[in-house]
Design goal:
It contains 4 helices and 6 strands; from the N terminus they run βαβαβββααβ. Strands 2-5-4-3-1-6 form a 6-stranded mixed beta sheet. The mean pLDDT is 94.
Length: 136
């Protein structure tokens, strides 16, 4: 799996400090379906999509699925940016998973390198998705 994050919102440093994070706020149905397919212990690459000026987007870390999908609590919080008035506790529309930090990569693997080495990667077929499957 590959998950994408905006470092200004949640960076690899934040993730390393937290150790385990709730991967919430996914509001795309295809990405949500991908979340629901994730299984405990599966490996995940952590991708920063809009890094600091002058830095290319790329994979900066690795992690594992700690907890399989469950209802995203942000959908029920009317004060939260990811609130969804159509979701109910009985019939939630959105899911999240918990991810456990693994390690930072020794260096950023840039989008250009990924495109060259993995041209069929879901990252390039579905660039708007924040959660994409990868092949071993």
């Amino acid at each position: 799996w590959l998950v994408k994050a905006e470092p200004a919102e949640y960076s690899i440093s934040d993730f390393e400090k937290d150790t385990i994070t709730e991967w919430d706020g996914v509001r795309n149905h295809q990405a949500k379906n991908n979340l629901r397919k994730m299984r405990k212990g599966q490996r995940v690459l952590y991708y920063e999509s809009n890094p600091a000026r002058g830095t290319r987007p790329g994979v900066v870390g690795r992690c594992t699925v700690e907890r399989e999908d469950y209802p995203d609590p942000t959908q029920f919080d009317s004060k939260h940016a990811y609130y969804d008035s159509k979701s109910t506790e009985e019939k939630p529309r959105w899911a999240c998973v918990d991810l456990r930090f693994g390690a930072r990569l020794a260096r950023r693997v840039t989008i250009d390198e990924l495109r060259e080495q993995m041209p069929e990667c879901g990252l390039f077929r579905f660039p708007r998705l924040s959660v994409v499957p990868l092949r071993e």
